């Protein structure tokens, strides 16, 4: 007998409740384009591209709806959200990643990333208690995921990335933001540093091997203040210039969302885009035109926060499955040989 509440329908319900939550909050829902001629150029984000033969024009599949929403925000649209299909090249499919995935992105005017974290707590609890009630006829903030009991009651864990590196890896991250310093540190810890020419891969290895597996799972975890070099669209921390006003959210050991206080300085944004462009040229990495219209729009950008949240991963949590294919009707893995 087919389950009356299959996992794909949980994802469908998550999407419905997201819309309900933001509509109640007075947010405008925006339908953003998937095909775009240019986009932000950010570390480790590479778009899939296609060609419009009729006009012989190269186009790209959006890696996020960010640039489209920001252009409307610069025109005064105010609080807004979208649920968009997005794509990332140079990333393989796997248990938590599909080639085509759904991203919730929303913006709140006049707030910073600390306020945004509270908004995330409210949204996810709003969705979960309703799904739990429909499934089990009860209402609770305790999520069972892969034999873990996760308490969704606010406040969730909050910790800085610097504290995690110091506590779990014995590394002063602030003193390791340059390539020579992190090479020396990583080599002393036994990592292979031969041929390494950029900072980010060693940082990521340390984070994935020594930090991520040790994150607490009894409650969701907000990790605050990421290196500014990884966050070209964020405001920097006033007292810590090497770090940005950005957090990532982990639930049950899985990254769910990435939020920050938005950068409002157009010159800094363009400088960041040009630096990443030059970095890719020097390292023979894929290039695409950066979005100059976004840079121009930022000259009229208000103080606000923005966040991207993985809808499919959130559905995985509420469906209690360890594989994203289970919540999708047409996962990439079933369509390719």
What does this structure look like?
This protein has 337 residues and is an alpha+beta fold. Helices cover 34% and strands 22% of the residues. It contains 9 helices and 15 strands. It has an 8-stranded mixed beta sheet with strand order 1-5-6-15-14-13-10-9, with helices on both faces. It is globular. The protein starts with 6 loop residues before the first helix and ends in an 18-residue tail after the last helix. The mean pLDDT is 95.
Distance between the termini: 29 Å
* Residue runs with pLDDT of under 50 for 5 or more positions: none
Strand sequence of the main sheet, in spatial order? 1-5-6-15-14-13-10-9
Order of helices and strands: HEEEEHEEHEEEHHHEEEEEHHEH
Summarize the biggest pleated sheet.
8 strands, mixed
Structural class: alpha+beta
Q: What's the number of extended β-strand segments?
A: 15
Quickly describe the structure:
The chain has 337 residues and is an alpha+beta fold. Helix content is 34%, strand content 22%.
Which keywords apply here?
34% helix; 22% strand; 337 residues; 9 helices; alpha+beta; 15 strands; single chain; eight-stranded mixed β-sheet
